[in-house]
Recover the amino acids of this structure.
């Protein structure tokens, strides 16, 4: 049943990034329908996050709804031909149930793995985690959001006792005095958010961008700092050193609302400006100017993204930026604070409700006896039956074909998106059994024993949680093609086949009601949020407990309003104080040497998204970004003898990726850049380093040592 619509269409949200831009969607008619279009996007100007603005990906999102580019029937690999062939749903589901149960019986529950995605709705992520732990009894579940902002989440917890990407709504950004934007390029990754930066400058605020490339976002900055990849930690420590040396620390705030300052200050003072210049390549005058701009403003924010986070020291790097905020009194106050720009559409909600290796719903810890008892009570199972924490995402993928013999995968494409991707592909191929549920035949799905076609964003109702912590409602606007079922229906059917006929409903609102109960009292408390409230209020910010607020009048309680702004009165630590964490700089997991003398960093382009599994199927987007490229500085190109457009290979200890040279002065001479949206010869994640952060288990996507070769002429030496 579709949701009721107005003449403007059904109000819903974009399926891509964590802004979750509002849009209206209506079925295509007339010539558009005759040409194969399924739906069209109509502006939704009243939604506060994007105010009607959409990027090209959002505007063209209905193109992937077409049966011409998507899966519309189950596929099962034929024993006779070795190819994926059409099958009935009954055959496909039975094959999956037999495959998972057979491996479990032969090798134990932890021989079965589950891998989820940051694009799954809260209802689906919650149900997937419950399915893994209750039906399969496995600890081996994680999701691709581990590759998104796990380092920032870990640092958030260490400092504040709670992780929410932004502790304030985006509307606060234009009203602050200064923003330091670290390793983020929203002009390409979330274009509708750029208006918040332009409005910041129009209001007299200052913008500092930290990025080894002079991106479209860096072009907007009052000050652009271009550190050597892998040195963001040293840069943040150097700025904190200058804050102390110049007497700019807010000692009153530090004494009243923090702990651990002495140790953090001592660690920062070992990173004097000249040393930081040698490490990062950022000159001392620029360091001093950054401190002046940040500290002279009455309020300020530091916002990080994948640049500093996707490193083997990502958690410590984010902690260093949080320390800068705390030392200057720019946290726990209006229009100030540290925040992380979450990447995936439900990257925030996806890590709150149970598909992460160490978590239960409500952002509860899986190793907390009280949390286990609460969630087990909601699920109707003994607490001791719940498995303990399992492997992180890369470690789970690395274990495939060994300890983990079967895998159920939903909404992810690790053959393209995982680090050391050729190795990951090899491990996936070595599985005894692989089942994939997806909307398209991704590179990973193409390797599966069974592939299930599932509904997309426009064909199902469910909630997501955007980068602000705002819980949103996607509404079903269209009927899916015949032969396509929802992920909730898939998990319901598999649970039944595996002996659990109850406890896995297919109605998303019923699932959300159970999620509310499971999250009640937890850090991410959704118990006071309902579909009705979300629709009426343009989203509700968590935490939002069910307990009413009385405002002193016991006879007139009102629903909890939600929490748009965190930490204004106290931090979510036992004593209410934020914690400084002493950190020191250390090198990247892999530094350049004679054989691999150049640094590689990776990222996105505006017309593609993540592994490209969906956007590469949209003609307009492919025309704008048809394939990978290698961005390098003219000085490096001259040393190599490489001309614009010439095919080159970027080679690391793990493999090679190819693309045409794109010569530009917007990148450092010691660094090359490749986007990561493509498979095949241009798959840059073949090259990237899986070295893991010891706390977050985040792989080091953002820096590794490489050499550059001409594809036709072989290696080209780079003079020292």
């Amino acid at each position: 049943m579709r949701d009721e619509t107005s003449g403007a269409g059904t109000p819903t949200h974009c399926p891509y990034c964590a802004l979750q831009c509002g849009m209206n969607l209506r079925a295509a008619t007339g010539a558009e329908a005759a040409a194969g279009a399924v739906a069209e996007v109509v502006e939704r100007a009243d939604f506060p996050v994007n105010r009607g603005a959409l990027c090209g990906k959002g505007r063209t999102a209905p193109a992937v709804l077409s049966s011409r580019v998507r899966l519309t029937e189950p596929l099962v690999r034929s024993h006779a031909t070795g190819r994926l062939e059409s099958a009935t749903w009954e055959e496909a589901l039975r094959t999956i149930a037999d495959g998972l149960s057979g491996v479990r019986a032969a090798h134990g529950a932890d021989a079965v793995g589950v891998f989820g995605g940051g694009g799954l709705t809260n209802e689906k992520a919650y149900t997937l985690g419950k399915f893994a732990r209750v039906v399969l009894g496995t600890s081996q579940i994680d999701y691709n959001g581990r590759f998104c902002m796990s380092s920032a989440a870990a640092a958030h917890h260490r400092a504040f006792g709670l992780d929410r990407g932004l502790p304030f709504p985006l509307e606060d950004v234009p009203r602050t005095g200064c923003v330091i934007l670290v390793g983020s390029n929203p002009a390409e990754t979330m274009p509708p958010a750029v208006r918040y930066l332009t409005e910041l400058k129009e209001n007299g605020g200052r913008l500092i961008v930290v990025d080894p490339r002079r991106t479209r976002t860096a072009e907007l900055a009052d000050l652009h700092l271009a550190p050597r990849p892998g040195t963001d930690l040293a840069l943040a420590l150097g700025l904190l050193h200058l804050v102390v040396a110049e007497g700019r620390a807010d000692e009153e705030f530090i004494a009243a609302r923090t702990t651990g300052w002495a140790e953090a200050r001592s660690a920062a003072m070992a990173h004097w400006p000249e040393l930081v210049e040698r490490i990062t390549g950022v000159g001392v005058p620029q360091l001093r100017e950054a401190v002046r701009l940040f500290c002279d403003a009455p309020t300020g924010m530091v916002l990080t993204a994948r640049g500093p986070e996707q490193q083997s020291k990502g958690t410590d790097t984010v902690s260093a930026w949080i320390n800068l905020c705390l030392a200057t009194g720019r946290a726990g106050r209006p229009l100030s604070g540290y925040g992380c720009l979450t990447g995936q559409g439900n990257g925030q909600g996806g890590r709150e409700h149970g598909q992460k290796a160490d978590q239960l719903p409500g952002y509860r810890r899986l190793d907390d006896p009280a949390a286990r008892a609460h969630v087990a009570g909601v699920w109707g199972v003994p607490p001791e039956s719940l498995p303990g924490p399992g492997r992180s995402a890369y470690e789970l993928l690395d274990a495939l074909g060994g300890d983990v013999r079967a895998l159920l995968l939903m909404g992810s494409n690790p053959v393209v998106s995982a680090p050391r991707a050729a190795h990951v592909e090899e491990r996936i191929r070595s599985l005894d059994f692989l089942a994939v549920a997806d909307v398209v035949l991704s590179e990973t799905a193409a390797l599966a024993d069974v592939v299930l076609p599932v509904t997309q964003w426009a064909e199902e109702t469910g909630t997501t949680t955007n980068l602000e912590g705002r819980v949103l409602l996607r509404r079903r606007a269209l009927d899916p093609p015949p032969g396509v079922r929802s992920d909730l229906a898939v998990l319901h059917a598999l649970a039944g086949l595996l002996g659990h006929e109850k406890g896995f409903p297919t109605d998303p609102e019923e699932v959300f009601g159970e999620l509310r109960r499971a999250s009640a009292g937890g850090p991410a408390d959704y118990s006071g949020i309902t579909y009705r409230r979300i629709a009426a209020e343009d989203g509700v910010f968590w935490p939002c407990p069910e307990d009413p607020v009385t405002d002193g009048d016991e006879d007139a309680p009102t629903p909890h309003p939600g929490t748009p702004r965190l930490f204004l009165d106290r931090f979510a630590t036992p004593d209410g104080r934020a914690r400084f964490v002493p950190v020191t700089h250390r090198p990247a997991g892999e530094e350049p040497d004679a054989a691999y003398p150049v640094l590689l960093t990776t990222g996105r382009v505006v017309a593609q998204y993540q592994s490209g599994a969906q956007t590469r199927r949209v003609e307009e987007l492919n025309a704008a970004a048809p394939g990978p490229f290698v961005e390098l500085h003219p000085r490096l190109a001259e040393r190599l003898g490489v001309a614009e457009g010439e095919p080159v290979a970027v080679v690391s200890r793990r493999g090679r990726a190819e693309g045409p040279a794109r010569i530009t002065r917007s990148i450092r001479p010691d660094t090359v850049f490749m986007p990561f949206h493509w498979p095949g010869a241009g798959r840059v994640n073949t090259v990237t380093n899986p070295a893991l952060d010891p706390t977050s288990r985040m792989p080091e996507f953002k820096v590794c040592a490489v050499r550059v070769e001409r594809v036709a002429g072989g290696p080209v030496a780079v003079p020292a």
Remarks:
- The longest helix spans residues 89-107.
